[in-house]
Write the structure tokens for this entry.
Amino acid sequence: MPDNIPERNDTENTSVLNIEALDLKWYSRFEELASFETEDELTGDKEYREEQKKAFLAGEIDHPVFDLPKLDIEEITDKEEGLLKLKKDILEQEQNELVKQVYRWRINEKIAALRLLKAAKSGNVRSFERYNYFIYGKPSEDIFAFTVESIRAKAKGVLENTESTPEQRAAAQDILDSYIEPKKKADIGLPTEETYQKAKEVTLAEVSDIIDMPEFEGEIGAEEIRRVFETVFDNLGISKAKGGNWEAIIDTSSAKAVSISPEQKAKIPESRTIEYKNLLALIAHEIGTHVARRVNGNRSRLMLLGMGLDRYISGEEGVATMREQVIKNDDVVEEFAGINYHLGISFAQGLDGTKRSFSGVHEMLTKRRYLERLLDGQDPDKALRLARVNAYNDCVRIFRGSDCETPGVVFSKDLAYREGNIGVYQLINTQEGQQEMLRFSVGKYDPSNQRHIWILDQLGITEADLDYLQTHE
């Protein structure tokens, strides 16, 4: 055992062993009150949401109206009061100033999330907007400029290509007419081959065991994905069958993406299908990152790392998408993650000079998706139909919780995919960042956030802690 790693002690109210958890007194109360994901609370009835989708795509309504059946104001208020009481107790009783501060920041963020949910339920658009900005921030103008530049460059290439079809040319020209050229050039570039290979090397060392499975042909459905996830949980010794808390379930809500909940469940949408290599990438993203960071964080010196430091989400999704990319792609990645979400939020908030509602963003995203489908060889009618459906699904995520008609008011959590992905690659492009990669799995923090790095360093949480956790299961 390394000299700087103390013995682990049995603790109450947890199924794992902790390295002298500094926040053991507070963590279980926080976990009970804060084990909710804001976006999960903003989902709706599947049949109702589908009716709204059909009506919008048919031109019968200008914007959808989202139901919010999960939101219970009384329950939200109880959680808010509980978090306020917890914060008061920590500030009065906790002796470790750093523990006191990290809990203050995180509790304030979760209180803001509860107030955002209240605003969504009551239809208070301005309050919703204010709390959204507090938690998730605004889109990076540089990243928006980089994205628009790359889209315009592709459109210009279509016009210059003598083999482009008339439909492709018309779609490309539409892009150039509506996607305004940024006023300044963004100083952002795709990861170099050296950076990408370093990311791949460290990722494979981290997740190779959990993605080691027989290859299969064709697509598999949700139930098979669920069974694969359960097998991985079993192999890690964290499934309910092995005495842990993790399980995989079929999600029958209106959600479209696989997700990991704070209640330690992997939720697989019932309509989800996937091919072999993409499944490996999905496992690296969801279990190798989201689950592993939760488990390791719970077992660290600061149990709060299991639920995450405040504003950790950009780093979380940045690491997860990077790992997904290097598993899925053999060569250098050709596009950063989360382009449609970041683009849509940026258009909604008027980074090109015009704020937009749901319908305005849908129109802009449809243009890009239509050109992409044409370039993939689809016939124009099918390409347009599917582009409109894809753009609608993007907008549902972007505008969930809002009234969909007030320009600029969005739920901007999904900025984390693109901004986090870019941030992680930029970090890995430095010597310090390559060293930091060894600590990516110690818990839920943002490796691009210098305040988070300072917190881990102050607490002495290093890659040595992770090595210890992985060899002392």
Strands lie at 219-220, 247-251, 259-261, 265-269, 274-275. The longest helix spans residues 97-122.
